């Protein structure tokens, strides 16, 4: 069934397990040349929702350019899949009211320590996949 578009309690009916969720990586989320798990869990101001771009609707470089056009900082884009979120019992949903390609991963039902643990697992999955787009040395943030 992987790859089929299905509705369910886990989230958006139009995303598949293979849909990549594109996450912008703020320069503060890099330590000693590696992305920290902090990039893959929401902060208190995020209302327990981690913002991502729906990779079925926008390419990694285009998402980076869009993000930067909003005067936000990002050194590049990493990705996790809807299926990886499902393995962590995280709900993924589109939130096009913010902008058409916007989606979020909902952490609201988990404690801080559970969010931290889930963020580490998502970071590990993203690291295995590698950078989807990375700012070159000519571009400056």
Attribute tags:
24% helix; two-stranded antiparallel ribbon; single chain; 3 helices; 8 strands; globular; alpha+beta; 141 residues; six-stranded antiparallel β-sheet; 23% strand
Number-wise, the strands total 8
The helix-and-strand class reads alpha+beta
For the termini, the CA-CA separation is 42 Å
Secondary structure: helix percent? 10-25%
Rg: 14 Å
Low-confidence stretches: 1-9
| Mean pLDDT across all amino acids | 90
Within the largest sheet, what's the order of strands? 6-7-4-1-5-8
What's the SSE blueprint?
Layout: E1 20-25, E2 30-31, E3 34-35, E4 49-54, H1 60-69, E5 76-81, H2 82-87, E6 91-94, E7 102-106, H3 112-129, E8 133-134
Protein described:
With 141 residues, this protein is an alpha+beta fold. It has one domain (20-131). Helix content is 24%, strand content 23%. The protein has 3 helices and 8 strands. A 6-stranded antiparallel sheet has the order 6-7-4-1-5-8, sandwiched between helices. It has a two-stranded antiparallel sheet with strand order 2-3.
């Amino acid at each position: 069934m992987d790859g089929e578009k299905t509705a369910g309690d886990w989230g958006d009916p139009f995303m598949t397990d293979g849909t990549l969720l594109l996450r912008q990586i703020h320069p503060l989320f890099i330590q000693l040349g590696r992305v920290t798990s902090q990039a893959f869990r929401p902060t208190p101001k995020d209302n327990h929702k981690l913002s991502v771009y729906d990779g079925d609707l926008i390419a990694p470089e285009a998402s980076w350019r869009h993000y930067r056009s909003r005067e936000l900082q990002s050194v590049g884009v990493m990705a996790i899949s809807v299926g990886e979120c499902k393995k962590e019992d995280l709900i993924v949903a589109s939130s096009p009211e913010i902008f058409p390609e916007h989606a979020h991963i909902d952490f609201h039902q988990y404690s801080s320590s559970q969010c931290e643990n889930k963020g580490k697992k998502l970071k590990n999955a993203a690291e295995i996949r590698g950078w989807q787009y990375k700012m070159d040395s000519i571009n400056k943030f």
